Structure formats: C-alpha cells, structure tokens
Amino acid sequence: MKTRILAPLLTASLSLLAVSGANAAGDHADHATHQADAVRSPADAAKMASFDILAAHVHRNGRTVTFHMTTNGTAGTDRPTPVGALAGAPVHAYVWPTSLDPSSVGFEGGTGILALAATSHPDFDDTPLYDENGDGDPANDGAPWHSHWVVLTPTEACGPGALGVRDIPEGETPAMPLTWPGLPIFIDSPGYAPLFDGPEIKVNVPFSNAAALAGVSYDGVTSALRVNANVHAPLLCVTDVFDVASGDLSLPGKIK
Predict the structure, then answer these.
(1) pLDDT tens-digit profile of 85-130?
(2) Sign of torsion, CA 161 167 170 171?
(3) CB neighbours of 73 closer than 8 A, spacing ≥ 6?
(4) What is the dihedral of CA 24, 27, 33, 39, to 10 degrees?
(5) Residue 42 pLDDT more than 90?
(6) Are 175 and 21 a contacting pair, CB within 8 Å?
(7) 8/18 Cα distance (integer angstroms)
(8) Given CA atoms 148, 217, 93, 249 in this order, what sign does their dihedral have?
(9) DSSP state at residue 98
(10) DSSP readout, 165-195?
C-alpha cells in the first residue's frame, strides 16, 4: 500500500470566549467559502477518523496563508504511543505537500518537495526555541502538536517507493532557515501553532510576499513517520500513509 500511494508523489512535480458566538459564525462562514476550493476526499470508515481527510485547502488573506484540513473525526486527538527513546520514535503528522521551491522558506533550492507539517512525537523535542506546553522548559515539548517545514525526497532506504525527510550528509552545509533546529535533516521549526476546532486543523503562515504564491499547487496527507532505529541516515522516514486528499498525490489544489 505504501508503494502504491507514495509513488505517484514522485511524479507530482516532485475567539476569544467572550465573543465566541459572533466570531464562530464568521469563522465558519469564511471556512465554508474556502471549502469550495478544497481538495475533497470521501469519508472512509475503515480509516482512523482523526486522520481521515474530508478536505484539504490552502488560502491567502493578505500576507497570511492558511493551511487547513477537515477530518472525519476530531483532529489532533490521536497521538503516537511513546517508545521511550529517540531511536525508533514514532511521529504522527498532518501534511500539506506543495509545489513551492524549498528556497521560498530558506532551504537550499531545488532539493525536494517542500511540505508544511503539524506533528506530534512524545519521545523527542525538535523545537528548541519554543515552549509549547508552557512549563518553562523548551526541551520537553515533542508531544504537543507543533509545526514544521520539511523537504521530502524519494528515499529507497526507507522502503521501495518511500519518502523521507532529506538528510544533510556529514560535511555538507546547505542553506537552512533561521529557525532550523540543528538536526541533520531538512527541517525547520518556525513556531506556527496548529489550531484545532473539532474536525478541523489549521496553521497560519506569514509570507513576505504571499501574493507571489498564487497558483502554487498543494495536497493534503495524514501520515506516520519514524526515526531510524540506528538514529542515522536516513534519519526520518515516512512509514505509513493514513489518507491522501486527492487520492493520488497529484497536488490538484491551487492557492488563489
């Protein structure tokens, strides 16, 4: 199944509570408007409801681009079971693959498929600049949902037709975003908080020139990843795909 679903990606170019009533009405009206442009997916009772995608959509308001996904359950409720170590640590993710070049967010250009991801992984923390759980320690926040930019590439060492987060070979120093957490992979920890509302998850991302994103393609994916048991290249592999909004990872959505 992994090969059948992942392989097509290789050809896809490569409320505040006091006023919650009023704000919710506006938010849901705006959501309905953008749903018309969403990449839609039928419900599937055989899939985990919180990762069963009904719609994925990306839309722009001024300089802010919102990455949005609607699920068949309550988004964000299912997190991976910790294994107690970095080696073999599981990751759950809501992912928006895009046709953006990685250089648009500070990575070395032309290096793979740029994707925004909201992830949870209780065994390790890869957001050293942020204290997501608010306990005063920025180094123990892997379990709360948080955001990343990642660059995905075909990685045969992860399995036939599989993808992994692009590794940084020893001795190489490719361009990385300012909020790169220092791991030897193409990952950024920009601190954009994923927002959950029942079946919906969204991440608001600022761009200096968001208008230039018009026409950029996107899709929606829910998936599991895992840190290599040897904690070595490839460091982070996609191990399972729960759902794909388009069904074939053809990136049919367009930012307007």
Answers:
(1) 999 999 999 999 999 999 999 999 999 999 999 999 999 999 999 9
(2) positive
(3) 48, 49, 50, 51, 52, 199
(4) -100
(5) yes
(6) no
(7) 47
(8) negative
(9) B
(10) EPB--TT------TT--S-SBSEE---PPPE
Contact 238, 244 (CB under 8 A): no
Q: Classify burial at 172, counting beta carbons within 10 Å of its beta carbon; exposed 0-12, middle 13-18, buried 19 or more.
A: exposed
Which amino acid, 55? A
Q: In DSSP terms, which residues pair with 60 in a beta bridge?
A: 65
Q: What is the Cα 177 distance to its own chain's centre? A: 16
Distance, in Å, from the CA atom of 208 to the CA atom of 224, rounded to the nearest integer, reads: 31
| Unique residue bearing structure tokens 């306990």 | 135
Residue that has been written with the tokens 């290599």 in this structure: 228
Q: Distances in Å between the alpha carbon of 241 and those of 6, 128, 191?
A: 8, 28, 25
Question: What are the CA-CA distances from residue 217 to residues 12, 37, 96, 162 (Å)?
Answer: 10, 12, 10, 21
Structural tokens at position 185: 């992979």
**What is the reported pTM?**
0.87
